[in-house]
Design brief:
The complex is a heterodimer of chains A (about 130) and B (about 220). Chain A has helices at about 15-20, 50, 60-65, 90-100, 110-120, 120-125; strands spanning about 25-30, 35-40, 75-80, 85. By secondary structure, chain A is an alpha+beta fold. In chain A, β1 (about 25-30) and β2 (about 35-40) form a beta hairpin. Chain A starts with 14 loop residues before the first helix and ends in a 10-residue tail after the last helix. In chain B, the strands form two sheets. In chain B, strands 3-2-4-5 form a four-stranded parallel sheet, with helices on both faces. A three-stranded antiparallel sheet of chain B has the order 1-6-7. In chain B, α4 crosses α5 (about 95-105). Chain B starts with a strand and ends in a 29-residue tail after the last helix. The chains are: A alpha+beta (about 130), B alpha/beta (about 220).
């Protein structure tokens, strides 16, 4: 649905189109009907249409609280412990190729415990770090 | 675009701590694009200002909102909801937005959260530089598209001063000398003869020297028909 919406007061006078500084409004007269057209990529959301409309027909609030559009849908890799969604398989592949290693699919919480399990002597405090001296 | 910077947190706290309920209001235009005063920054500022450590008594209650532009009076009057109980607005807009809100919602105090810094452009991601002083009498057609008013520390009109060294300004080692850039650009454009023309004294009246400026558009609103 268009972000540019008019209410039932619109009488097709085209004052909005003539006063649009961004040339984002147009119209087509065909088969005995007038269709008002709007191009969002040209629209500057300046509000001139709303200001100028003699019928108070432009519902500018739709430019301020528009809807969310779906852009793309991708599969997800989940944390292998708790199932939290993490990232897409393509993202994982990219990271692995950058790091030149395989990535364990883990959420931040379980990544911490995973890291701790890899270094038990550090967690237990039994081992003292070797700082290179005697 | 208009570029702004968030004020130091301590300064913001000192200006809002006397209020009970503050609306933190982002602006959806220039300051959103320069990453200082949009919806995201408003939410972040609310989070920081809600920390108890900033206050000796109870902190104000914060509401957050954002509007497309704060600098249009009819737009904010029609579409900006001020929640009941709000006794101050903390605006993340430029000075024009803050003043428009203050006029529109008088006598509600409108407090600036940003310092409006300059009219600039983003040369690289994360870097904005001053490009225009709004002097009201543009001469970029003579200077290869480099503004000596905004980009020369002395706003010189007829070439560099003696402080130009190695293409940089004596004011700062990271500030390119505008006149070095102008000459280099004119040379590339094969228009070096512009550099030979003497520019007469600039009239600063269009630049605001005679008071606040106003633009009236013919054929629109209350302007001449």
């Amino acid at each position: 649905m268009s972000y540019f919406r008019v209410n039932e007061n619109c009488n097709g006078c085209l004052a909005c189109m003539e006063n649009c500084p961004a040339c984002a409004l147009g119209f087509v007269d065909q088969d005995g009907r007038r269709t008002l057209k709007h191009n969002m990529t040209k629209c500057a959301r300046c509000g001139q249409c709303w200001r100028i409309c003699p019928q108070s027909a432009v519902e500018f609030q739709h430019f301020l609280v528009g809807q969310w559009d779906d852009v793309i849908k991708l599969d997800l890799v989940h944390c292998r412990v708790c199932g939290e969604p993490l990232y897409s398989p393509a993202y994982r592949q990219k990271v692995e190729s950058k790091l030149n290693s395989t990535d364990e699919p883990l959420c931040p919480k379980h990544r911490q415990s995973y890291a701790a399990s890899m270094w038990p002597h550090l967690v237990s405090g039994k081992a003292k770090p070797n700082l290179g001296g005697k | 675009m208009i570029v702004g910077d968030l004020k130091p947190l301590e300064e913001i706290v000192s200006t809002i701590k006397a209020y009970k309920q503050v609306l933190v209001l982002g602006c959806g235009s220039c300051v959103t694009v320069c990453l200082s005063g949009g919806e995201r920054e408003a939410v972040q500022l609310r989070r920081e200002l809600s920390q108890m450590r900033h206050y000796q008594s109870a902190p104000p209650k914060f509401e957050v909102d954002s509007i497309l532009r704060q600098c249009e009076r009819d737009l904010v009057l029609e579409f900006q909801n001020i929640p009941a109980g709000t006794d101050a607005v903390l605006s993340l807009a430029c000075g024009a937005g803050v003043q428009t809100l203050a006029d529109a919602f008088e006598p509600l105090p409108v407090i600036p959260a940003l310092n409006t810094t300059f009219l600039g452009a983003s040369d690289k991601p994360g870097i904005w530089t001053e490009k225009c002083k709004g002097c009201g009498d543009c001469i970029l057609m003579h200077t290869g598209g480099v503004c000596p008013v905004a980009r020369c520390a002395k706003s010189l009109f007829n070439g560099p001063c003696g402080g130009s060294k190695g293409g940089y300004c004596e004011v700062g080692k990271d500030i390119p000398c505008a006149w070095t850039q102008i000459v280099a650009r004119l040379k590339k454009m094969n228009k070096l003869h512009f550099y030979e023309e003497v520019r007469t004294l600039k009239n600063w009246e269009p630049g605001g020297a005679t008071g606040p400026r106003r633009r009236v558009r013919t054929g629109l609103g209350d302007g001449p028909k």
